[in-house]
Design brief:
Blueprint (H helix, E strand, L loop, with lengths): L7 E3 L2 E3 L5 E4 L6 E5 L4 H20 L2 H17 L1 H12 L3 H21 L6 E4 L9 E9 L3 E4 L7 H13 L3 E4 L6 H10 L9 E3 L9 H4 L5 E5 L2 H10 L4 E5 L5 E4 L5 H13 L11 E5 L3 H13 L19 H16 L3 E4 L3 E2 L2 E2 L2 E4 L6 H4 L6 E7 L2 H9 L3 E2 L1 E5 L3 H10 L4 E4 L15 E2 L2 E2 L4 H7 L1 E9 L2
Parallel strand pairs: 7-8, 7-10, 8-9, 10-11, 12-13, 12-20, 13-18, 17-18, 20-21
Antiparallel strand pairs: 1-2, 3-4, 5-6, 6-24, 11-23, 14-17, 15-16, 19-22
């Protein structure tokens, strides 16, 4: 069960101005707890406190920033079971996936602690022509200033961590708006941060409704906006963000290619995971599966059997693989997409039944490419299967999307692997595995409608810092 007294955090301090936000157990539909909801006046105060804290955060020495992050690693490790159960309840995430995310939270803060003491610059010669004789230069990275973070419901711990941890490492104060459907993980992060000696005002964690949170985007005191969520919302926020830097990690309809030389047993095992882990609610979840015609029939049989065997049910039970979607309305949307595809001529290989927010793991075959379940982001437990003959054509089909986050290629051909890396219009190409794979220090992000900028601690620190040059003239 969840506690009944989670506060929000305003300028490092817990406050409970109300208990207006209900947090629902996504499996039972019952209210699990209530937390405060930040009004615009509170958000304005938080931004002011972050602006006031900018100088103190900038002056905080690297070892002190590292100590804060090391403290978080210790405390999250001690509270990992609590964090996992909170995820299981508030997000409906199967408990094994929830434990995995708690582990990734710890990894992310640990990497940030390591990176906090190696934010470097360069000494560079400037005498490239006679007029620059006697001049030399050096540059360093300095914190960009107060940051605004908006995190999504599907990874409430780790996607908040990918904003919070590099901000602390870089020396940036911040305000964080967690998803109102899943605020508990972020509030526990706030509870742990409040145990540290961060300068007053360094952080605020404020659950808020989207329609009351305009200041997170529009306030000019904020120097960077980092948003993870849907493309429709993300691009609209960018248009309203003014002069601040904007980092967007948006959606996808990730594809995987299985070439004729792939190990079928391995490919099926990984693709079942990539398509249906945490009920398919991942922006890099496998949605489009392209299989070489030489192995298509056997692959389809194996994949269908493995998918049909996945257990759906209470996410708190160890054997559950498919839990509820985040809401019944989202399950209804995806159910409608599946029915539209079938009505347009697609074949339902397995799954397709819905009860409330629960939707079976579903495989479709021969879906028209203009169907939503192919060309938009499904964000649920469904994948579409098709065959190809020519590898070049398969690459073109992967690129035939407005999204470009990650792609997976099962091939043993080095030349095809390099060709995919060179030609696919995505932020990352994963060879021998699904596009759903991520480790938390790698550069992660997309192109096209999938976003701007990169996460991964070192790369996020680059966005949260600015280069400052010093030139020295020797007369």
């Amino acid at each position: 069960m969840l506690e009944n007294d989670y506060p929000l955090y305003l300028g490092n301090r817990p406050e409970a101005p109300n208990h207006d936000l209900e947090v629902v157990d996504k499996f039972t539909g019952e209210v699990a707890t209530r937390v405060p909801l930040a009004a615009p006046e509170l958000i304005d105060r938080a931004i002011g406190l972050a602006a006031d804290a900018a100088a103190a955060m900038r002056e905080l020495p690297a070892y002190a920033r590292q100590q804060v992050l090391d403290h978080c690693v210790r405390r999250f490790t001690e509270r990992s079971d609590e964090l996992a159960m909170a995820l299981c309840i508030e997000a409906g995430k199967p408990i094994k996936d929830a434990r995995g995310e708690a582990g990734r939270l710890i990894d992310t803060f640990r990497v940030a602690a390591e990176e906090s003491v190696r934010i470097t610059g360069e000494v560079m010669p400037l005498d490239i022509s006679p007029r620059a004789r006697g001049y030399e230069g050096m540059w360093k990275r300095v914190p960009i200033g107060p940051c605004s973070f908006i995190s999504p419901f599907n990874f409430p711990l780790n996607l908040a961590a990918h904003k919070v941890a590099p901000a602390i490492a870089a020396g940036c104060p911040f305000v964080l708006k967690p998803a109102s459907l899943t605020p508990i993980g972020a509030l526990i992060i706030g509870e742990v941060l409040a145990e540290t000696d961060l300068p007053a005002g360094a952080f605020s964690i404020l659950p808020a409704r989207r329609d009351g949170a305009d200041l997170f985007t529009e306030d000019d005191r904020l120097k960077l906006l980092s948003f993870t969520g849907s493309p429709v919302v993300g691009w609209a926020l960018k248009a309203r963000a003014g002069k601040k830097k904007v980092v967007l990690e948006l959606g996808g309809n990730a594809a995987v290619i299985v070439d004729a030389d792939a190990d079928l047993e391995d490919a099926v095992e990984r693709i079942v995971f990539g398509a249906f882990y945490q009920s398919g609610q991942s922006c890099i979840g496998v949605q489009r599966i392209l299989v070489h015609e030489a192995i298509y029939e056997e692959f389809r049989e194996r994949l269908t059997g493995a998918t049909a065997a996945l257990r759906m049910g209470d996410p708190k039970e160890e054997e559950t693989f498919i839990g509820p979607m985040i809401s019944e309305s989202e399950a209804e949307r995806l159910d409608a997409w599946i029915r539209s595809a079938v009505e347009s001529g697609a074949k339902l290989l397995c799954g397709g039944r819905r009860e409330g927010a629960m939707l079976e793991a579903t495989l479709l075959e021969d879906v028209a490419r203009d169907q939503a379940v192919v060309c938009e982001e499904a964000f649920g437990p469904v994948a579409v299967l098709s065959r190809f003959r020519d590898f070049d054509a398969a690459l073109s089909q992967v690129n035939d999307s407005v999204f470009g986050l990650q792609a997976g290629i099962f091939t043993r051909d080095l030349y095809k692997a390099r060709q995919a890396w060179n030609e696919l219009e995505v932020g990352g190409v994963v060879i021998g595995d699904v596009p759903s794979w991520r480790v938390d220090h790698m550069p992660y992000g997309g192109v096209k409608d999938s976003g701007l900028g990169r996460e991964g601690i070192r790369f996020a620190i680059e966005d949260m810092t600015e280069i400052r040059l010093m030139v020295i003239r020797t007369p």
